[in-house]
Design goal:
0% strand, 125 residues, mainly alpha, 4 helices
Length: 125
């Protein structure tokens, strides 16, 4: 072997990748279950606030704070977006701060922008 040759990584057995994937799936399963349980618990509250037109800022913000922790899942992000759209009509500045917190927390960049939360624009009057 020539010392100037670049080092080569030894190929890993494909079974090693499968084993690693299985180990990771097992490790994250409890976290996924916690996210799902929290989302299921928060969903009726979000639906109620939106359906009733709630203007209870403290309740809305408390729920958004909780949803931020679960917005890494598609279901959690959907609930977060729903409540943000509702809150936008009440306090645009506060809603924008939640959207920014989401982007910072979940490292949304330009490539992921299509999945990101967008601040809705109010209808023209």
């Amino acid at each position: 072997m020539n010392p100037q040759d670049p080092p080569h990584a030894s190929p890993l057995d494909p079974g090693t990748y499968v084993d690693l994937l299985n180990a990771l799936s097992t490790a994250i399963s409890p976290l996924q279950m916690l996210h799902q349980k929290a989302i299921e618990a928060l969903k009726p509250s979000v639906q109620d606030m939106v359906r009733s037109g709630s203007r209870d800022v403290q309740r809305i913000e408390h729920t958004l704070d909780q949803l931020l922790n679960h917005a890494c899942t598609p279901e959690g992000l959907t609930l977060f977006k729903t409540l943000c759209r509702h809150y936008w009509a009440i306090d645009q500045e506060a809603t924008a701060s939640y959207v920014q917190a989401y982007r910072e927390m979940w490292a949304v960049d330009e490539q992921n922008e299509s999945e990101a939360v967008h601040i809705p624009h109010p209808p023209a009057t």
